[in-house]
């Protein structure tokens, strides 16, 4: 990886390059190729990671022109001073630099050491002369250091050697006719080199002498004479170090750039090439580094030298054993025998100069679509090179097949002399990746981690996730991401959680944590997906994105879920949906989603199994739900239309209607226009899905979509349509763009238009030839006017009424609010009608034999449609005064509508279907419930508008007893006999248990006619449950029962014997029947609670704050709702307590708790806000009766929550009573409650009753509670209740004079003034009470005293000095008797404050003496 970092650095610093001039114009091309190769030769990451980094850190003086040695020396000194100032580093001593070159702490330190060494050798002299002695010594040390394996010696010395040679040749350019003279002067100072120079003519070139010195310094292959001379052969480790030293030394020479000099001797280049070939043939583990070095060497040559060195040296020594030419048959054998290093070098040579005249066998391309199978074995063998390094052959392949284009690498254009590169990539994927790496066969076996890792790296490179950023055309992406590749490379790696090769994670102590470690390739696979997504997002190619998405989704529709990534979602821009997008992003997202939907439509039609079709349907739903986050949601509408068309209609015979517009458009088309565009250009929006389905069925040669797939799509159609309605009704979100689906229309109108649009699609389909699927019962109907047609007429009739109401609203100038209310009511009912009519559609014949149940559902739907049509007509006749309001025989339309809505919510149409396998009905019920809410809201808005207009008769006729009874009973259950039924039910159940348990005991021990006993038990159950309990069928396995009854197979047939096994089998049969009955009973109970919970939405809307505030709801309706709701709350709470003891009853525990919370919310948050404005005596009497009933219910409350609901309900009724403070019945009622609370140990009344009254109605609480609380503070049967009484009294006496007078009535203030002295006496007695000596009780009493003192300060005139003095003495006594410093301090402070109160009380009593005090004075004088 270090070489990649080096490449990025070089790219960022283009001005830092060598000043050596190339030999000709071809050299820069090779330099560019060398840069590409450097980024992919991973062997350099291990051994020469820091070579280029130290070169870059050489001071600028090395790369400057050296025209004047003095000037260069000055510049060097200046630059060194600047660099020293920056790094705060002093130049190293010359000998210390060698030690720092091998430092493994940081590459920066090695670069500084190299800089100081070169500066000392070449720029230390002020005259610019080279220090040849030290330079020769440094050159020898650098070459010897290449053979050292200590720390980072090899990297540091090789890097410094490369810079050393480059600077030496730079010095030779000035004042010399031959390049390398400065290096020759340095070499002459070396004894060995001096002998070579003096020995012969071949050693006159400095490059030749340098090579000989390098070979001598890194000698590792000694002859026998040399071995004897040196004292023996080298050890294996020394031989390895010298071999690597030679490799690094040659690479240092190559990277110095001296090969590009014009007068550089070719024989020396040839010698270096032979040296590398010798290293290549030395050991197998040295092949790849040597091949990498050869590639780097040839990359630095010009075209002439490259062709010559290839034909004369590389081809004969590396690729051929003889000089004879190879025929076709031998060539195939030769290609099959190539190793990966040879393939890499050959591809590099053929890529670099394709027009060069290479000799055989490099004259023809070795990598073609035909030769890939021959090379597959060699390429597969590179899997031994594990991640993060990849063999150099793969990077050579990618560079050979691709070319640079706009920041990406794309497949090369096909030339005349070369093959199809796309075909080569396809063969590589099929032959190498699929068959060899991840395939499982006899030769390769199961894919190992190494082979899987190589396959993943190949996919990563071709998918654009590598540094090369390869971009494949869309047609190749499906091959690259084939299902086999995606499953093996991504899914099995990223979703692995154990199994073969996986070990449990253990702690440091060796204990197992119980978790499996992740797959070792998971991080690589995750990074690959992330980089591939980033590359696609940068490219912005729609075709490429969709090709990857289609491939991944085709392999597994749950790709993101299984891999736990956002790959597909990011490619489809799901992660930005709902956000503010630019115009370009919106266009891109729209195009992606349209193509994705087309792909999913085709996948659903062509799916070979129900599982796959279901997964693709779910993906379409996921996209549609995301599109519903913002208007206009065109893609969601397209999905809804497709589901509807595919689920309910046979589109094989559909045809597009022709018109003048389409005919004229066809005449004007040119011959060049495509067929698909011309065919679908003028297709109506409603028919596009049908035409698409028809084309897909023809292309896959299918007759129709399977019924099971249609059933899934019908369920998702209803679900999506319900979500669409919910999105329209949702409150508008913030943002710059409006969230309106249908302009400025109201929400009820928008929902009506949406449903009408969907209903209109079905009409268009039938007109254009689409046939609606029918069931057998519908097809065999002999009626003249089928129910479907009647329902259609009723639906169209209600739609007509709604359209007329909308027209009146738009045209009406007066009574706008009333007309708007009528349109809201009409559109709400029309929406409900359409939602019911859509459930008439069928998916065709059902395979699971449920036609009878479905026919019953269809009959119920038709009845609901007929009743709704009649109710809407009656409503509008009443509104238009066409029906007499005085006729008592006329049915109340509101009562009929409420009954219909309750029946819908309680049936399988709008509630819950007991058949769990009917997904369509369950999804359709959600849509129906939304429509029911809209219709009910429309009714309420209509009645509210009538109330505003003064239509009092409408209030009397509409909201009557039948309406309220229906609504209340739908939520609270039957109004009579709830307790009795509950008791009977429990008794019956327990009785059955006893009967059956007796049967079990007796059947195993004695002869008993079990049939007669079971009949008697069944008769007893009929008395409690009715005949339905005997009609239930129990499904048994005949084979199991037969085996149990025939245990003794050896018994004689002629002899009848009684067997004990038969009794046990029959007993088990009875037990199975009992368990089945209980399970069905528990399920019926759960469904009943679900239906009641859904009907609670009607009460929520009826008792909303706006309705209660408008005042049109009669007080009898509200007052009569409290008792049923409270009793229902109590029954449900009891049922929950019983359910905790029964596993079957626990099945409905959540529904029971939800209904309980719903009732509490209705009472505490809605009905508590009711206010009555009437003051009639009749109303007052009814309110008092309701208050008494609620108080009686409160005295028998079940829990604190139930008591709290009763308290709130009682306050709501009492608040509405006129002049309630003077009502003795109310005062008596609360006094009785308080007495019951304080005196009875088993009292069901809780303190919250009085807390709620004090908080909500403080004046009434003061009038009715002060005296009873004072009595309770003295006489309560426990100390806790006495303290609670004091706390409640402190709440009544809390506050100063001004604040209390603003909230309390005059009567309440008078009561407080008259009771303050009694309260003081009560506090004194409590302080002296020995039963209240606990610190907790003392704190509560002192808290009450604190509030009383505050009240006494502002009302001193009402206080008596004697009561103040007694309380003060009690406080001082309590302070003296306690051991708590806090209590003592509080008592003292309160006593001091009471002194001031007593003084004011004296003054007031002197100025205004009472009559009783004057009489006492007269008696005292006598």
Task: Give your account of this protein's structure.
The protein is built from 65 helices and 7 strands. Helix 32 crosses helix 37 and helix 41 packs antiparallel against helix 42. With 1422 residues, the chain is mainly alpha-helical. It is extended. The strands form 3 sheets. It has a 3-stranded mixed β-sheet with strand order 1-2-3. The protein has a two-stranded antiparallel sheet with strand order 4-5. A two-stranded antiparallel sheet has the order 6-7.
Question: Could you say which overall geometry the principal axes of the C-alpha atoms support?
Answer: extended
Task: Give the oligomeric state.
Answer: single chain
Q: What is the overall number of helices?
A: 65
The total beta strand count reads: 7
**What are the segments in which pLDDT stays under 50 over at least 5 consecutive residues?**
1-78, 80-87, 498-514, 660-679, 734-738, 882-887, 976-1015, 1017-1036, 1048-1054, 1296-1301, 1402-1422
Strand percentage lies at under 5%
**Distance between the ends:** 120 Å
Q: What would the average pLDDT be, to the nearest integer?
A: 78
